[in-house]
Design goal:
This protein is of the alpha+beta class. It is built from 5 helices and 13 strands. Helix content is 29%, strand content 35%. It has a 4-stranded antiparallel β-sheet.
Length: 205
């Protein structure tokens, strides 16, 4: 592969397959590019605007197109340019050196396979990081076991809502909620450092 070649990868939201293509620097900057999925039902576009470009990516996770602007310098020279879905936090497009893009696409496909498996088994929740979310839920169980979760209103009854990248503790009495991020190892470390958790509800008179 020549130094000027760039590899671009995304997952088609229609057929679910990974689309990985190569383009030369000249192809990417000389004119706007369209990179269709072989299924013909989705495409990634790169619109040239002089020194910068606008990339439109179809997203598997939220079924919408994401639009991101970047400099042509980043488009052509960054080892790995990653565009993410804001709703799920997962990557939806990678542009860069061949090995970096292939590795990122492999990780993304593994995440997608896990999400599909969860959907097939009707597992509750779709998580950004399975391991972190599992550890966060385990830590919450421990805190709950020592009766360390309560609400500012005085109630100790609560429900748990599990989302993409966070867990909400919701007071059963006043409805107040405490959001605990559960996307990165740092989020887990912060939770492990807390002996008790207080939902910021209304205090009893």
């Amino acid at each position: 592969m020549g130094e000027t070649d760039r590899t671009i990868g995304y997952i088609c939201p229609v057929c679910g397959k990974a689309v990985v293509v190569k383009r030369t620097a000249f192809q990417l900057t000389a004119a706007s590019s369209t990179l269709p999925c072989p299924c013909g039902k989705s495409e990634l576009t790169i619109d040239q605007m002089g020194e910068r470009c606008e990339i439109t990516v179809p997203c598997l996770f939220c079924a919408k197109d994401h639009v991101a602007a970047c400099s042509n310098d980043a488009l052509l020279h960054q080892r790995l340019l990653a565009l993410s879905c804001t709703a799920s936090g997962l990557g939806c497009c990678y542009i860069g050196e061949e090995d970096a893009v292939f590795q990122a696409m492999e990780e993304l496909e593994a995440a997608v396979d896990k999400l599909r498996m969860d959907d097939a088994m009707e597992t509750r929740g779709v998580f950004l990081d399975e391991v972190v979310m599992g550890e966060v839920l385990s830590e919450l169980k421990e805190i709950a076991g020592r009766k360390g979760i309560r609400c500012g209103c005085g109630s100790t009854d609560y429900g748990i809502k599990v989302g993409y990248s966070a867990v909400d503790l919701v007071c059963a009495r006043c409805g107040a909620a405490l959001r605990l991020p559960a996307a990165t190892p740092d989020d887990l470390d912060r939770l492990c450092a807390q002996y008790t958790l207080t939902i910021p509800g209304k205090k009893e008179n």
